[in-house]
Each structure stands twice: as C-alpha cells, then as structure tokens.
C-alpha cells in the first residue's frame, strides 16, 4: 500500500516525466520520427506513472476518490493527445502536429500538471 509520502513522490515523478514528453514531442515534430509508435504512446498505462496509477499499489479508497479519478482521466487524455500529435509528426504532417502541440497539448499538459499539483497539496496536507 502507498503512504502519503509515496504518493507525493510518485506525483513529483509524474510532473517531471510528463515535462520530458514536451521535449520528446517537439523533437519528433522536428525530425519526423520518434522512439515510440503512436499506439504505444496512446496507452496511458505504459509510462512509469501510468503503471503506478493502474497498479494494485494504491488502495481502493484512493482509487475511489475524486482526485485519483480526475488524474486518471486527464492522464489518459494527455496520452491520447500526445499520440495524435506523434501520428501527425511521423506521417509528415508537421504543421498539423505543431498546431496541435501549441494548442491541444499545451492545454492538456497544463491541466494534468495543475491536477497533479492539486492532488499533491491534498495528499501532503
């Protein structure tokens, strides 16, 4: 079972890891290729945070709570958006990928980060 300090640690790691994806997507847009496929990226349980989020480590009471439910939904939306951008990028639709990155990705990334910080404050209180 996760303790509050474990939750805070995982949330901090998620904030950092999802920040790294910003650079990876920018690079994919610029180069037209990536280390992962859009289908791999679309699966929100394949990143380290997603593995933890979907694991049995978290108690049922945490999983039943609104913060967890919101984070899980937003995290999945983040992966969907990133995968769509990557699909455009590797298909030679750089302008479409860039437009989505600047608008949709920025919105979803910001929303996820805000939700993670909110959850972290609630857990740490």
Overall description:
The chain contains 6 helices and no strands. 81% of the residues lie in helices and 0% in strands. By secondary structure, it is mostly helical.
Topology of helices and strands:
Elements: H1 4-31, H2 38-42, H3 48-54, H4 60-64, H5 66-90, H6 94-124
Helix pairs in contact: 1-5, 1-6, 5-6
Question: Descriptors for this entry?
Answer:
81% helix; 125 residues; mainly alpha
Question: Structural class, from secondary structure content?
Answer: mainly alpha
Kindly report the average pLDDT value: 91
- How many β strands by DSSP? 0
Gross morphology is elongated
Counted by DSSP, the helix tally is: 6
Beta-strand residue percentage? under 5%
Order of helices and strands: HHHHHH
Could you list the spans in which at least 5 consecutive residues all have pLDDT below 50? none
In short:
This protein is mostly helical. The protein is built from 6 helices and no strands.
């Amino acid at each position: 079972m996760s303790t509050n300090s474990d939750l805070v640690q995982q949330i901090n790691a998620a904030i950092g890891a999802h920040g790294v994806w910003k650079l990876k997507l920018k690079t994919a847009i610029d180069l037209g290729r990536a280390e992962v496929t859009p289908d791999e990226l679309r699966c929100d349980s394949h990143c380290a945070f997603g593995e933890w989020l979907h694991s049995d480590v978290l108690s049922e009471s945490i999983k039943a709570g609104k913060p967890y439910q919101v984070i899980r939904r937003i995290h999945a939306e983040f992966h969907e958006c990133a995968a769509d951008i990557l699909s455009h990028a590797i298909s030679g639709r750089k302008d479409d990928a860039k437009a989505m990155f600047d608008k949709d990705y920025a919105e979803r990334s910001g929303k996820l980060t805000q939700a993670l910080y909110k959850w972290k404050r609630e857990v740490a209180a």
